[in-house]
């Protein structure tokens, strides 16, 4: 509304500025024409004196019309000038609005172009980052694969080395076992030869003395008289180291008692074998032969809860024994 008021005021001033020179020019023309009009007016007065009243009224109306016509013409010119000024102002405003719209359109287009360029740049950067990430992932995958292959090769090499070591250890163990078996066989053969020589060298009297001595350890009813180590409360005597036990005792190490050193301690018979003294804690079964200690192969083994003496001729019987250092 304020802008419309300013525009209206400006147009009115322009119209007044245009109208003022026109009025001044018109006044000069009227002053020049006054003497002639006065003369003409003087003449009609003279003539009117002679004319009738109706003609006089017509002439007066015509004069008034002639006087009003310049005023209407001035008003029309002023209105046309105002319309022309308004048209020019409207054109100027339209041109300004069009210029602003064109400027805004250009700015918007520039912004759109800038945004498109930024989006394209962002897409290119994203593609570059994706390609870089993919390259890094591929490189890491290759490195992991190489590491896995290296680890597998190392594991395979370690397994092969372990297998080789195991085979070597097994071979060495087999060799030791063979040597031990050979030594056992040789030792058994030597002992058998010694036993044979000892049996040949013993006199009938010596044989009779041993029979009498061993008869004292014979049971009357072995099933009721013997007890195992669990029934005795467990074995609490000396324990032979495993390596030494495997070398002299067990099923593979049989012997005969008659060829061994024998002594009595506390009413119990003890005999020495494999570097240790051991004694019979239980009596021997009454159904064994009288000369079992001379004719039967026996061996010492650990069974369940303690040491026992086994007779190969009677494999189901076990006589509890204890080991002594001396």
Search tags:
326 residues; 12% strand; 6-stranded antiparallel beta sheet; rod-shaped
Notes on the protein architecture:
- It is a single chain.
- The chain has 326 residues and is of the alpha+beta class.
- It has a domain at 204-324.
- The protein has 6 helices and 6 strands, in the order αααααβββαβββ.
- The protein has helices spanning 2-50, 53-201, 204-215, 222-225, 242-248, 292-295; strands spanning 262-265, 268-273, 276-280, 298-303, 306-311, 314-324.
- It has a 6-stranded antiparallel sheet, with no helix packed on it.
- α1 runs antiparallel to α2 (53-201).
- The longest helix has 149 residues, at 53-201.
- The chain is rod-shaped and about 215 Å long.
- The protein starts with a helix and ends with a strand.
- Residues 18-22 have low confidence and may be disordered.
Provide the low-confidence segments as ranges.
18-22
> Would you tell me the structural class of the helices and strands?
alpha+beta
Number of helices in the DSSP assignment? 6
Share of β-strand residues: 5-15%
- Overall form: rod-shaped
Please trace the helix and strand order, writing H or E for each element: HHHHHEEEHEEE
Summarize the SSE layout with pairings:
Layout: H1 2-50, H2 53-201, H3 204-215, H4 222-225, H5 242-248, E1 262-265, E2 268-273, E3 276-280, H6 292-295, E4 298-303, E5 306-311, E6 314-324
Antiparallel strand pairs: 1-2, 2-3, 3-6, 4-5, 5-6
């Amino acid at each position: 509304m304020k802008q419309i008021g300013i525009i209206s005021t400006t147009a009115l001033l322009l119209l007044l500025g245009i109208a003022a020179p026109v009025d001044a020019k018109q006044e000069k023309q009227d002053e020049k024409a006054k003497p002639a009009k006065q003369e003409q007016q003087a003449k009609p007065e003279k003539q009117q004196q002679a004319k009738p009243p109706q003609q006089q009224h017509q002439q007066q109306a015509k004069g008034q019309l002639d006087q009003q016509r310049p005023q209407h013409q001035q008003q029309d010119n002023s209105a046309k000038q105002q319309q022309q000024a308004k048209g020019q102002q409207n054109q100027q405003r339209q041109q300004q609005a069009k210029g602003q719209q064109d400027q805004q359109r250009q700015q918007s287009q520039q912004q759109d172009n800038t945004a498109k360029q930024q989006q394209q740049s962002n897409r290119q950067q994203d593609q570059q980052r994706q390609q870089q990430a993919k390259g890094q992932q591929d490189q890491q995958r290759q490195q992991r694969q190489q590491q896995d292959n290296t680890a597998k090769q190392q594991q395979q090499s370690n397994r092969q080395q372990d297998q080789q070591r195991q085979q070597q250890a097994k071979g060495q163990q087999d060799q030791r076992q063979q040597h031990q078996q050979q030594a056992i066989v040789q030792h058994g053969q030597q002992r058998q030869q010694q036993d044979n020589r000892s049996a040949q060298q013993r006199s009938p009297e010596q044989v009779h003395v041993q029979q009498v001595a061993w008869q004292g350890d014979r049971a009357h009813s072995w099933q009721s008289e013997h007890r195992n180590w669990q029934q005795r409360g467990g074995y609490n005597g000396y324990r032979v180291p495993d390596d030494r036990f495997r070398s002299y005792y067990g099923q593979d190490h049989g012997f005969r008692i008659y060829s061994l050193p024998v002594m009595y301690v506390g009413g119990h018979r003890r005999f020495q074998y494999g570097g240790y003294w051991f004694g019979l804690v239980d009596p021997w079964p009454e159904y064994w032969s009288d000369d079992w200690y001379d004719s039967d192969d026996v061996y010492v083994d650990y069974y369940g809860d303690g040491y026992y003496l086994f007779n190969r001729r009677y494999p189901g019987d076990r006589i509890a024994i204890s080991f002594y250092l001396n």
